């Protein structure tokens, strides 16, 4: 499978509409890839909290393939034109009852919205995203069909701060995920954690990790960049710098099964253990 990660620079001087058009053009330029991945909250900026409510969008019924918001519609057209599976990063979703979610969108090569994922772990502790948005409650996987280049696979979806919670990724692995996709707006001051955690999630789940970050500055917060592709052995296959960049990597999807067979660590898990005195 050929995967392209688009590390988008978020410039506060660029309007959301302009960035939406620019990113759609970048997606169209990835024709020939099987999967394209965008970062977290790239339309508005992950730390642009004051703009969340203003830029929030509706999301269509993913079971019926509807795309209602402007970002989803633009990305739907771009995916269809490029004939790629598109993880369109995430947007600020507003539901019919007025709640906000950090919601990822996955579109098919026909431009259909096939799945959404609402970020489970919200960052900020007692401010920012943690207070402005509701938390998702569902683990989400997305089966991808075979391509002329190789077999199909299953994506497991997570977003940014989720990367710090290994139990989420183990749940995705148990649900059949072989490629873990993590869009992010990760701060530059914790860049070392970003790289370390991406590799850790790959090693412990014996899966590919596609971790796509933003570049630039969001509301004065410098972004990490350094989008990275990690294989099931924890080897870094490609890593971006700090500016806007496209990473394109060929993934040997059969490596996941080979790794799990040759080094079957997952079968040695011991579940249901209790701490002393907990009984």
Q: What labels would you give this structure?
A:
6-stranded mixed sheet, Nitrilase/N-carbamoyl-D-aminoacid amidohydrolase, alpha/beta, 7 helices, 279 residues, globular
CATH superfamily: Carbon-nitrogen hydrolase
Overall spatial form: globular
Instruction: Walk across the major sheet and give the strand order.
Output: 6-5-4-3-1-15
Helix tally equals 7
| Beta-strand percentage range | 25-35%
CATH class: Alpha Beta
Radius of gyration: 18 Å
What oligomeric state do the depicted chains represent? single chain
CATH architecture: 4-Layer Sandwich
Biggest sheet statistics: 6 strands, mixed
Q: What order do the helices and strands follow?
A: EEHEHHEEEHEEHEHEEEEEEH
The name CATH uses for the topology is Nitrilase/N-carbamoyl-D-aminoacid amidohydrolase
Number of strands: 15
Helicity, as a percent range: 10-25%
Count of all domains:
1
The poorly predicted ranges are none
- How would you state the average pLDDT, rounded? 95
Give the N-to-C terminal Cα separation. 48 Å
Protein name: Carbon-nitrogen family hydrolase
Pfam families: CN_hydrolase
Keywords: Hydrolase
Organism: Streptomyces paludis
Report a brief summary of the structure.
The chain has 279 residues and is of the alpha/beta class. The chain is built from seven helices and 15 strands.
How would you portray this structure in words?
The protein has about 280 residues and is of the alpha/beta class. It has one domain: Nitrilase/N-carbamoyl-D-aminoacid amidohydrolase. The protein contains 7 helices and 15 strands. The strands form 3 sheets. It has a 6-stranded mixed sheet with strand order 6-5-4-3-1-15. A hairpin with a 5-residue loop joins β13 and β14. α1 (about 15-30) packs parallel to α3 (about 70-80).
């Amino acid at each position: 499978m050929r995967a392209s990660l688009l590390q988008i620079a978020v410039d506060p001087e660029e309007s959301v509409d302009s960035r939406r058009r620019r990113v759609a053009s970048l997606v169209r330029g990835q024709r020939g890839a099987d999967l394209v991945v965008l970062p977290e909250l790239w339309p508005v900026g992950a730390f642009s909290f004051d703009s969340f409510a203003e830029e929030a969008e509706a999301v269509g019924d993913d079971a019926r393939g509807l795309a209602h918001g402007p970002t989803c519609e633009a990305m739907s057209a771009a995916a269809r034109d490029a004939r790629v599976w598109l993880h369109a990063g995430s947007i600020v979703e507003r539901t019919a009852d007025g709640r906000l979610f950090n919601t990822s969108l996955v579109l098919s090569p026909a431009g259909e919205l096939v799945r959404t994922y609402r970020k489970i772990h919200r960052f900020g502790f007692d401010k920012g995203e943690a207070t402005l948005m509701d938390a998702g409650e569902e683990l989400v996987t997305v089966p991808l069909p075979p391509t002329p280049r190789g077999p199909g696979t299953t994506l497991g979806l997570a977003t940014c701060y989720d990367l710090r919670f290994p139990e989420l990724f183990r749940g995705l692995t148990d649900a059949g995920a072989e490629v873990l996709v993590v869009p992010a707006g990760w701060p530059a001051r914790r860049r070392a954690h970003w790289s370390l955690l991406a590799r850790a999630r790959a090693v412990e789940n014996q899966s590919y990790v596609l971790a796509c970050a933003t570049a630039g500055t969001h509301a004065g917060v410098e972004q990490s960049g350094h989008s990275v592709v990690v294989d099931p052995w924890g080897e870094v296959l490609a890593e971006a710098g700090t500016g806007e960049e496209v990473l394109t990597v060929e993934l040997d999807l059969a490596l996941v099964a080979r790794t799990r067979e040759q080094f079957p660590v997952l079968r040695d898990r011991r579940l249901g253990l209790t701490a002393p005195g907990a009984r």
